[in-house]
Design brief:
Helices cover 32% and strands 26% of the residues. It is α/β, with parallel strands linked by helices. It starts with a helix and ends with a strand. The radius of gyration is 14 Å and the shape is globular. It is built from 5 helices and 8 strands; from the N terminus they run H-E-H-E-E-H-E-H-E-E-E-H-E.
């Protein structure tokens, strides 16, 4: 079920993590289109699933949010000093190379924010470049590899 297009994206993520020499486990699972799917396939709790969502403001940016919360767009508008909205699936793919549901935070070339609640867990699980690959990683390592700015970005 791993599409050929995903293979290159997963390899991008593996390469980025290997460069950093942190410990991370790649897990193959049934296709996950939602946080609920990820929870049922991984055994992780909703708040440990990390969604990487792409927004459009004056410039594109991404927010890592726990699976049980939503991004506070009013807060992001204040931070970005412009109106913001979710990017379309087509724009997400164009900007990141990933399709919705597989966006990996490790190698994005746009500003990236991480909700600080993600740091409260021993291990979290962002996407690994495919809807069938998750990455199990310590949240501090995720922040460090991705270069994300941390703060309160969700509600």
């Amino acid at each position: 079920e791993l599409m050929e297009k995903d293979r290159g994206n997963v390899e991008r993520v593996i390469e980025k993590i290997e460069e950093s020499s942190v410990r991370a486990e790649f897990r193959v699972h049934a296709r996950a289109d939602t946080v609920e799917d990820s929870v049922s396939h991984s055994g992780f709790d909703r708040e440990q699933i990390v969604k990487t969502l792409i927004f459009q403001g004056e410039k594109y940016f991404a927010v890592m949010a726990p699976g049980d919360r939503r991004v506070d767009t009013d807060r992001m508008e204040d931070i970005r000093d412009s109106s913001v909205e979710m990017a379309s699936p087509e724009k997400v793919e164009e900007i990141t190379g990933y399709i919705i549901g597989s966006v990996s935070p490790f190698d994005l070339e746009i500003d990236l924010y991480m909700d600080s609640s993600i740091l409260e867990h021993e291990t979290v699980r962002p996407a690994g470049g495919s809807r069938v690959i998750g990455v199990e990683i310590a949240p501090d390592d995720l922040r460090d590899i991705s270069g994300a700015k941390t703060g309160d970005f969700t509600e």
